[in-house]
Fold this sequence. Notes:
Elements lengths: L5 E2 L6 E7 L6 H15 L7 E10 L2 E10 H11 L4 E3 L4 E3 L7 H24 L1 H15 L9 E2 L3 H11 L3 E10 L2 E9 L3 H7 L4 E2 L3 E3 L2 E12 L3 E3 L5 H13 L3 E6 L4 E7 L4 H15 L2 E10 L2 E9 L1 E3 L1 H11 L32 E8 L4 E8 L4 E7 L1
Parallel strand pairs: 1-5, 7-12
Antiparallel strand pairs: 2-4, 3-4, 5-6, 8-9, 8-16, 9-12, 10-12, 11-12, 13-18, 14-15, 15-17, 16-17, 19-20, 20-21
Helix pairs in contact: 3-4, 5-9, 7-8, 8-9
Amino acid sequence: MKRSSLLCLPRDYDFYSILIPVQGIIKKWRDKYLYAELVKRHPCFSDSCCYDSRLRISRQGIFADVVVMQKFRLAEYKNENHRKPIYIEERKGDVFFCEKMPLAVYLAAGLLVMVFVCGLMRRGMLAKTAGKTAATQAISATTEFVGDKPQFQTQSAAAHFLLFAAQNDAQLYSFSWQTEGFTEWFSAGIKNVYPQVLSNEFPDASFSAVSYKNEIPSFTVEIIQRVQNAKVNGSSISSDFIVNVRNMLRENGAVIQEESVSPYGLKILIPQDKNQGQIVKKLFSKICEQELIVQSVAVSHVGQGLCVSVYFADEGIDFSNQLCRTLMNNEKLFVEKNETVRPAVVEKKTALQKPLDSHAVEIPIGKLIKKDGTVIWFFKDEKGKITQRQEEE
């Protein structure tokens, strides 16, 4: 480590060693290849990240040692240390703010290319037809990365998924969504539908193994996509909005479990005996009215009820409003069909509900249970007269 270099803390960067084809000595080609590889390897790799790479020759081939950092973190190093090169332990060398590449790397790469070309020429001289076939396969292998180039989407995959699930009469027992830079990620636990139905509509989705309960399939779905959408600034969260949301939740029986200050967010629990779908609808309706930017959403069934968490941001992609409106209009996806809210039964005295004579002897002969849970008992007295009395189950 040079005295003029600054040691970078391990928590501030991620290090990758990536094997690249021979064309990697060309910087323009190498940058495209490394970008495609980092999208697949680095979690939430987006425009908020930056990277620096150095070529390394070994017996296994040409490697690019890549260091990935958040742009704001790199800016802190730049401002505090006046553009000093940053020393990385794994790389055993400097990165960022030092543009020179060792001459030995170019010489070794050139020598490797010459050996590669000579080998192809020798193979072509020995077997011309076989040489052409091998060359074709080599070209296909070295250009394979073009197909892995990330495709940018203009629609929210999560909103599309929720609409598709509602159309197929599916139910969700969990849903988690978030954005980071220009990357959208969501995971959902879904039942009452088969993976084959979803795979045709979402070819890039990842599916877990399918489990069955009472012959009903359930599994999880995960989708990560890069989005091409302009960032928008959301409305500021006012104290009136926070107060209105708190009052609405308490009036409807929801319990606020957690609140964050900056950025604002909240986590609530909706008990099982409350109208869960209606509360979810009202919550996201208020968010849409204020045109707020949501950074993450999570909805899941827990033992005590339905847990919902929403966290906001000052700016983000405008998929946020689209997702909130979809959640607002499809709140029934999260309500268990066999756990719908049962209306309270109010007993009303009728002509059939006469006060019983304390001295009369009645023998129960049967009962009738209605759909709303009301139970009607039938009695027979000593004279053979049949009476009925209504009560709750």
